[in-house]
Automatic annotation (TrEMBL), chain A:
Organism: Salvia splendens (Scarlet sage)
Any GO BP: phosphorelay signal transduction system
Principal location listed in the UniProt entry: cytoplasm
SUPFAM superfamilies: Histidine-containing phosphotransfer domain, HPT domain
UniProt xrefs under Pfam families: Hpt
Compartments where located: Cytoplasm, Cytosol; Nucleus
GO cellular component: cytosol; nucleus
Domain notes: Histidine-containing phosphotransfer domain (HPt) contains an active histidine that mediates the phosphotransfer.
Protein name: Histidine-containing phosphotransfer protein
PANTHER family referenced in this protein's UniProt entry, alphabetically: HISTIDINE-CONTAINING PHOSPHOTRANSFER PROTEIN 4 (PTHR28242:SF43), PHOSPHORELAY INTERMEDIATE PROTEIN YPD1 (PTHR28242)
């Protein structure tokens, strides 16, 4: 079971959904905070839902306020990088680039892609956490550098 | 750890609740006694109220009062503790401006174990 969980996680890394930061969060888990990662990820999805809504609304305005969009996306990128959401973060960077050059279509396209990645990641980590909870507390495996 | 077994103290200044939570835990894991506030103005208020910290972890972009403004204000008040900037802006004029406001150093977000370890080393060296 542990091996399955480890494989699940490895796949998420191999497919580029998560990066090193996720491991950093896992290493902060301890007996006092056994569900730290899940708490942080839950907080991320809750907080960023509001940001996504704001960005969506801002994208409906005409003409686009690129400065405001960039600012909103900056916050979103910060949060995403804090949980190791690698693909989401990459879309955020793209979006900011489009803002910088005033590319409205690019922004809208990238945002659609971003929402897809965001939703996919959510499903995948939900499965991961569900599985982890089933297994229960396990010995922290040694991480080979 | 400080000499005499006292813990180092840290102040996290960031408008993002999630980031505050992660940075607080990360610092606590390294033995820091940590407080968190959501913008530069609240950070200033703590110092004005007489709090002191060994290190301030300062986000760059925050509403009400941002990192560079808060850092400049702290230095102007004679606060000489370590102030570490964290930003997701990459290298560029904003980062340079932030560093020029009085930071000891500036790191790319997210804060991680390696960065905190480096901060701790610097503090240990300062102590000895």
């Amino acid at each position: 079971m542990q091996r399955q969980l480890a494989n699940m996680k490895q796949t998420l890394f191999d497919q580029g959904y998560l990066d090193e930061q996720f491991i950093q969060l896992e290493e902060l888990q301890d007996d006092a905070n056994p569900n730290f990662v899940e708490e942080v990820v839950t907080l991320y999805y809750r907080d960023s839902a509001r940001l996504i809504q704001n960005i969506e609304q801002a994208l409906e305005k005409s003409p686009l306020d690129f400065s405001k969009l960039e600012c909103l996306m900056h916050q979103f990128k910060g949060s995403s990088s804090s949980i190791g959401a690698k693909r989401v973060k990459s879309e955020c960077t793209q979006f900011k680039e489009h803002c910088r050059v005033g590319n409205a279509d690019g922004c809208k396209r990238t945002f659609q892609q971003l929402k897809k990645e965001y939703a996919t990641l959510r499903k995948k980590v939900e499965v991961y956490f569900q599985f982890a909870r089933q297994i229960g507390p396990v010995e922290k495996a040694c991480r080979s550098k | 750890m400080k000499k005499g077994g006292q813990k180092f103290s840290a102040l996290v200044v960031d408008d993002n609740k999630m980031i505050r939570k992660v940075e607080e835990k990360l610092l606590a894991r390294f033995g820091f006694e940590t407080k968190v506030v959501e913008n530069g103005e609240k950070a200033l208020k703590l110092f004005d109220d007489g709090y002191t910290f060994d290190v301030v972890v300062m986000d760059m972009e925050m509403p009400v009062m941002n990192g560079p403004v808060a850092t400049r204000a702290l230095r102007a008040r004679g606060v000489d503790c370590m102030i570490v900037g964290v930003t997701s802006c990459g290298d560029g004029p904003e980062k340079a401006e932030f560093e020029a406001s009085g930071l000891n150093c500036c790191w790319e977000k997210p804060l991680n174990a390696e960065i905190v370890g480096t901060i701790l080393n610097k503090l240990d060296n300062k102590m000895s």
